[in-house]
Design goal:
Blueprint: H1 21-26, E1 36-37, H2 49-59, H3 76-88, H4 91-105, H5 109-115, H6 117-135, H7 139-150, H8 155-166, H9 173-192, H10 203-226, H11 237-263, E2 269-270, H12 271-288
Antiparallel strand pairs: 1-2
């Protein structure tokens, strides 16, 4: 479903946050994640009071509540709903499955955002790096970009170089998922705009890459945590691929809307804050759908 392997998922009684999470977060070069990004240029309706309160809430995530370890059968309902989704293609089954995945499997949207914080770190680190490369404000990155250009790498190989520079080690589930999500996000950029220059992207393009990084990482985590829901069912590969594409489309739409929401207004914020807020807002939407 986006990663090379899947697991049976963490069982009941396990901590929502695995012991390697801090190390995974620290393995990503986030030296430019606090670089500011301009507000969205997309036209939007003037927010009413409720919208303003929602936006402020997304920038200040709710405190975690509830148990610190997973309950019995944490993914049972999610697996059941997603199995129904594979059989029927029902969007309501898909939404119910991902909702249960966040609410019960991950302990709610606040715990899920903390568990998946590597997604936001990866997105903001990638965004900050691309903006710094564009602006030419870091001599080390300038020299690195020049060396990449001199080698005449293809767009795909240049993307792999960027990801490898930001996550040079890896090994844990979260590190590998983050690396894969960044690669997928850059590949998606080129699918949308084959002539894009990865080292000269506008802020809106960078925000799209960040949103895609979060979306692909959420998509990867659903598979990693729920295990072989898709693989074990006896359906034609074409049907499975259609369902996977449907699931990814849903996740992408929600995350992109969340990114647009947290970038609205006139205040410039850091990429780290924007990515974290978009992740939190998207997980809240998933949980409540």
């Amino acid at each position: 479903m986006g990663t090379s392997t899947s697991s049976a998922g963490a069982g009941s009684g396990a901590s929502f946050d695995p012991p390697w999470l801090d190390d995974a977060e620290g393995s990503i070069d986030s030296g430019h994640a606090d670089k500011p990004i301009s507000p969205s240029t997309a036209p939007a309706a003037a927010p009413d009071e409720a919208d303003t309160q929602d936006q402020e809430g997304s920038l200040h995530p709710p405190a975690e509540t509830g148990p610190t370890v997973a309950p019995p059968g944490r993914y049972q309902e999610a697996r059941r709903a997603l199995t129904g989704f594979v059989r029927s293609g029902s969007s309501s089954d898909l939404k119910r499955g991902i909702s249960s995945f966040v609410k019960k499997g991950m302990g709610g949207s606040a715990k899920a955002a903390n568990r998946m914080r590597t997604s936001a770190v990866a997105a903001s680190s990638l965004g900050g790096f691309l903006a710094t490369a564009r602006d030419g404000t870091d001599p080390g990155i300038n020299a690195w970009v020049a060396s990449v250009k001199q080698r005449g790498l293809s767009a795909r190989d240049a993307a792999l170089e960027v990801v490898q520079k930001l996550v040079p080690t890896g090994g844990s589930i979260d590190e590998e998922s983050a690396k894969h999500a960044m690669s997928q996000a850059i590949a998606h950029l080129y699918e949308v705009d084959p002539n894009a220059d990865i080292f000269n992207l506008a802020d809106d393009q960078i925000a799209n890459v960040m949103a895609c990084t979060v979306a692909f990482d959420v998509y990867n985590h659903v598979q990693l945590e729920l295990g072989r829901v898709f693989e074990k069912l006896k359906y034609a590969p074409r049907v499975i691929q259609e369902r996977l594409a449907q699931a990814l489309d849903y996740i992408m739409v929600v995350v992109n809307r969340s990114m647009e929401k947290v970038r609205s207004g006139s205040v410039q914020r850091s990429m780290r804050e924007i990515a974290s807020s978009a992740l939190q807002d998207a997980l809240t939407v998933f949980a409540e759908s």
